[in-house]
Amino acid sequence: MLRGRRNEREALDRQLERVRAGQSSVQVLRGQPGVGKTALLDYVAERAADCRVARIAGVESEMELAFAGLHLLCAPMLDGLEGLPSPQRNALQVAFGMQEGDAPDRFLVGLAVLSLLAEAAEAEPLVCLVDDVQWLDRATAQTLTFVARRLLAERIAMVFAVREPTDITELSGLPGLVVGGLSDGDARVLLASAIPGRLDERVRDQIVAETRGNPLALLELPRGMTPAELAGGFGLTDPRPLASRVEETFMHRVRALPAETQRLLLVAAAEPVGDATLLWRAAESLGLRGDAGKPAEEAGLIDLGIRVRFRHPLVRSAAYRAGHFRDRQEVHRALAEATDPETDPDRRAWHRAQAASGPDEAVADELERSADRAQARGGTAAAAAFLAHAAELTPDPEQRGRRALAAAQAKFDAADSDEALALLATAELTPLDELQRAGLERLRAEIVFARTRGSEAPGLLLDAARRLEPLDAALARETHLEATAAAMYAGRLGGKPGVREAAQAAQAAPAAPQPPRAIDLLLDGLATRFAEGYPAGVPPLRTALDSFRHVEGLTARDARWLWLACRMAQDLWDDELWYELATRGLRLARDTGALRVLPIAATYRASLHVHAGAFGAASSLVEEANAIIRATGMAPLKFASMMLAGWRGNEAEALELFEPARPEATARGEGLGLGVLEWATALLYNGNGRYAEALAAAQRGCEEDDDGLFAWTLVELIEAGVRSGATDAASAALDRLSARTQASGTDWALGIEASSRALLSNGPDTEPLYREAVERLERSRGVVHLARAQLLYGEWLRRENRRVDAREQLRAAYERFEQIGAEAFAERARRELVATGETAPRRTVETRDVLTPQEAQIARMASDRQTNPEIGATLFISPRTVEYHLRKVFTKLDISSRKELQRALAGIPDADKVATP
Questions:
Q1: Region 835-858 average pLDDT
Q2: What does the mean pLDDT of the chain come to?
Q3: How far apart, in Å, are the Cα atoms of 330 and each of 254, 357, 673, 840?
Q4: Would you state the pLDDT for residue 749?
Q5: Residues 250-303 pLDDT 10s
Q6: CB 231: neighbour CB atoms within 10 A?
Q7: What does DSSP say about strands 308-310 and 302-304: parallel, antiparallel, or unpaired?
Q8: Which of 269, 268, 202 is nearest to 231 (CA)?
Q9: What are the Cα distances from residue 872, in Å, to 92, 654, 835, 892?
C-alpha cells in the first residue's frame, strides 16, 4: 500500500524531524477510502519508534458517545491528571465520566487535554495519530482540533486522516496533504501482485484507470471478478462510486465464509470499541465457538488479538451490512447483555436501542437517562442523539412528543438545525398541549433566525410570543425579546413587523415577574428605546445593562442575551460597559460550550478589540467565530470583520470583503448587515481621502435611523460632508448625532460629538472643541477614535499655519495609526506631517509591530506576576507555548527577566489596551 508515496513519506518525515527538534507539527491526510491514509499512519508509527505514539480511529457507531475517542487517546496518559490545575483536572474527569459534576467547559476540557499531552511530551516526543476523523464523536473532534490549533512549542505531532469528501469542518485551516492514487506504473505493479497469472494489457490499463490508482481497489476489485471478466474487461462497467464497489467486494468475501464466522464478524462489527473480552463474552452467549474467527483471520479480514481490528473500515461496514436485520438485533442484544451497566451504561443503552424491534418504553427511558449523563459531561450533540433515539422508541404518543421536542432543542443547541427541524416535524404529529405547540412554534422561529437572521424571523417570533402570553408569561417575554432582536437584524429589509412594531408589542406583553430578571429589564429598555425614541430609552437600558454586569448572578437563560447587551452598550456609547459585557459574555459562552452563542460573543469582543486598536487580537477572534460558523451552518457574522477592514483601510482587501456582502445580506433580508456595510464603506473611503464616495455610502447608511450603526454612520457623514462641501448635510447629521451623544453623556460619546462639531466650526470655539475631543477620548477605550481626533486636530492646526503645534498632534496620530495597523489613516497623517516640514518615512510592518498582539498580551499578564500555567489557562494555550512567546518578548525588548517587563512595556503605546479575549 506504500508503494511510491515518496512525497507523502518525505512530508511526514519532516514532521517527525520538527517534533524531535522541539517544535510542534500538525498534518491532515485527506483522501478517498482505501487510498492509503491508514498505511501512511502505519508508516509514521513505525518511523516514530523513538517517540511515544498514541493512536485512535473513529468508528461510525461510536459517533453518538461524547468524548469516546478522546478517552481512548488519553487513557494511557491519565496518570498525569494529578499534575493538572484542579479546574482542568475536574473538567476532564467529568467529561470522561470519572467523577460527577456540572457539565464541563468545552474549552477547559480542550485546555486540559493540551496540558496532558504537553506534560507527556516533556518526557519524550509525542505523536498522536487519529484515523477516520469523519467518524469521531463530535466532542472528540472539536477537542482535538482545538488542541491542534494551539500547538506551537510543544514536542507534539498530530496527524489526522479523514475520508474525502467529508463535511467535517473542524479540520478547516489545518495544514493538509491530499493523498491521491498511485502512479500508473506503481498501480500496475500492485495489480500484478494481486492477480496470479497473465492479465490482458488493455484490461490491466482499464482497471488502473477505473480505480484511479486506489491501492485498496486495485487489490480487492479483481478478487470479485471471474477469469472471463478479467480476460475481457466485462466486469468494469459498474457505475457505482469506488468505495461502494470495494465494500461490495468485501461483502462477497464475508458471505463466502462459514455461517459461524460471518456471525462472529457481525458481533465484531457491531462492537465499536474493539474490546476482545466483550466480543468473546457476547459470542459465547450466542453459542459461537472459540475458533469461529479463524477463517476470517486467514482471509486477512480481521485481527482477533488483544484488541479487535478490521483490516479496513470498509470491511467492518461490509460485515455489518452482510448480516440480516434480525441477526443484527440479536447481536446487539447479546452485546447489551455483555456490557456492564455500572461501568458503561451508555453503550449498553445504545446496544439495547439497536436491538429493539419496535417501541420500547424501558429502552427509551434508559436512552433518556444516557442523554442526561451526556449533557452533564458537556456532550450536547451526544445528548441530542440519545434523545432522538428515545423519541423513536417511545410507544406513548404524548411522551414521544415531549422527547422529540427535547431532542429538537438539544439538536438546535448543538447547532444542528436540519435535524432539529426534522424532530419538530415528528413532534408536530403527536398530541401536544397548547404550551408545547407554542414552544414548537418558538423553536422553529429561533431556527429560522439562527440560519438567516433575515426578514422572515421577526413575524414568526412575534406570533410565537403572542401565543405564549396566556400560557407562560416569562417565556412569552423572552420570546418578545427574541422578536425585537430579530427585527433589529432585519432592519430596513424587514417589512412588518419592524423593530418599532415589535417594541410596541413588547410593551403590551404581560408585566415582568418580581423581582424582574435581567432579560425582563432588557426587554423593557429595548421596548422604550425603539417605541419612544433614543433619549427615552437611555435610562431603562442603563438599568438593564447594569443587571448583566454580574454574570455569576445570571441564570443560563439570562446569560445567552449578553450579546444583545453588548450591542446596546455600543448604542449607548459606553465602552467600559461594552468591555465588561463582551469579555464576560465570551467567557461564559466558552464555559458553557454554547456554540450557537459563541460566534456572536466572539464577534462583539473582536469589535471591541478594533475599537481599542488591538487589530491582531480582533483578527484571531474573527477567525475563531468564522470557523464555528462554517462548522455549524449558521448565518455569517460580518460586523467585526467589516469594522476591522474599514479601520485597516486597505481598499482592495476591504472591497473584496464588502462587495459580496451586499447581495448576501439582501438575499437573507438582513438590513443590519447593509447598515454595517454602508458605515464600514464610508469609514474606508474617509480614511483614504475619497470623500465623495464616503458621503454617498454614509447617506445610504443613514436612510433608516434604527438600522445598523446609524450614529456611527452620522460621524462619517459629517466628515465626508465637510470635506466635499456638503455642509448642510453635515450640519443636519450633527444635530441628529448630538441628540444621541448628549443623552448618552459618556466621554466616548461627547468626545466624538466635540470632534464632529469642530469640523463644522470656523470661529474661536474650534480649538477648544478639538482639545475637548482629545481629552475625553483619552479617558475612553477608543484608541482608534483618539488617534482620529488627533489627526483632525492636527490637520486643522496645519491649515491655521501653526505647524509646530500641528506636528505634536499629527505625530501622535501617525504613531498610533502605524502601531495598530490603520494603514489609510496612517498615510493621511504621514502626508500631513510631511506638509509641516517634518520627515515621516513610511514604516514597514517589521518596524511598526514591536510585539504581536498575543506577545503584548502575554507580556502584560507576566508583568502582573501571573505564572505560565495561569496565563496558559486564560489564553487556552500550554505553559510551554507561553514560555516560547516570553522568550521572543525578552529578545524583542532586550531584557532578560520578568522583573524588567513593566519598565519595558511602559515604552510601548497602548500595550495595556490589549485585553484578555
A1: 66
A2: 86
A3: 19, 10, 55, 81
A4: 97
A5: 888 999 999 999 999 999 999 877 889 999 999 999 999 999 999 999 999 999
A6: 13
A7: antiparallel
A8: 202
A9: 17, 33, 47, 21
Q: Is the pLDDT of residue 217 over 50?
A: yes
845 by Cβ neighbours in 10 Å (0-12 / 13-18 / 19+) ranks as: exposed
For residue 296 the three cell numbers come to 476470517
- In residues, how long is the chain? 917
| Residue whose C-alpha is closest to residue 409's, from 379, 457, 446 | 446
Q: Which residues of 624-652 are buried (b: 16+ CB within 10 A; e: fewer)?
A: bbbbbbebbebbbbbbbbbbbbbbbbbbe
pLDDT band, residue 846 (cuts 50/70/90): very low
What is the C-alpha separation between 88 and 607, in angstroms, rounded? 29
| Structure confidence at residue 844 (pLDDT) | 46
DSSP 265: H
| Dihedral angle computed from the Cα positions of residues 419, 425, 427 and 432, in that order, rounded to the nearest 10 degrees | 150
Highest mean pLDDT, choosing among 73-87, 570-584, 772-786: 772-786
Task: Give the amino acid at 185.
Answer: G
Angle between the N-to-C axes of helices 6-20 and 37-47, in degrees from 0 to 180, rounded to the nearest 10: 40
Tell if the pTM clears 0.70, that is, is over it.
Answer: no
Residue 747 and residue 777 in contact, taking contact as beta carbons nearer than 8 Å: yes
* Residue 732 near residue 698, CB atoms below 8 Å: no
Residue 654 predicted with pLDDT over 70: yes
- The DSSP result for 649-711, as a single string, is --HHHHHHHHHHHHHHHHHHT-HHHHHHHHHHHHHHHHHTT-HHHHHHHHHHHTSSTTSSSHH
List the Cα angle 663/664/667 in 5-degree steps.
80
858 vs 871: CA distance, rounded Å: 7
H or E element: which one contains 52? Answer: strand 52-57
Number of neighbours of residue 606 by Cβ within 10 angstroms: 30
Tell me the per-residue pLDDT of 367-407, one tens digit each, with 9 for 90 and over: 999 888 887 776 777 788 889 999 999 999 999 999 999 99
580-600, pLDDT tens digit by residue?
Answer: 888 888 877 766 556 667 788
Q: Where are the alpha helices (DSSP H) in 256-359?
A: 259-270, 276-285, 294-298, 313-322, 325-338, 345-355
